[in-house]
Automatic annotation (TrEMBL):
It comes from Pararhodobacter zhoushanensis. This is GDSL-type esterase/lipase family protein. SUPFAM superfamilies: SGNH hydrolase. Residues 1-21 are annotated as: Disordered. Coiled coil: none annotated. Residues 7-196 form the SGNH hydrolase-type esterase domain. It holds the Pfam family Lipase_GDSL_2.
Amino acid sequence: MHTLLTFGDSNTHGTPPLQRRGVYERYPPDIRWPKRAAATLGWSLVEEGLPGRTAQFDDPVMGGIMNGWPALYQALRSHGPIDALTIMLGTNDVKTRFGATPEQIAGGIAALLDLALGDELQTRHGGFRVLLIAPPPVAESGILAADFWGGAAKSRALAPLLADLARSRDTLFLDAGTHIETSPLDGVHLTPDAHATLAQAVAHALY
């Protein structure tokens, strides 16, 4: 049986739209897009989604464990062998406190691709495909609006950059924003229907 590793942030973890801070919630497995995509493919699944994770930044509020580079390296050394890896990051990188441009965010994601596609980890797993997913653009709404002030425009600019990046690395690409939108409740997280739609898009891209 093939194995899929899904690496990302809260939208890979399965966090529902937030209406108040300080409450931990997570959709059950049969709602979350990674589980649904793996079930559609008939593959086993390793979920590696962490709310707040960035592609490259140590978060001054949430801590250094939010930096995706060491986390991806650990995940790819902890699990396996895998046959496919999805990377969907960039949402948290557009937060105001990082002051990052879309190009800088794409650069951080390039580092993740270079890590995953490098000889060490490809050899360790016997080779695996990578699907780079551009997350749906954020909307500055709800209780997270202040955190993402100025982030909507940055996130809209990210997908074309990531599409070009994927071509430069000869890897698979999916623009999630062409299939789904974030919930207007908080402008960041996904509804159950969006998880279902994204699952089908991911499965189709990997099939």
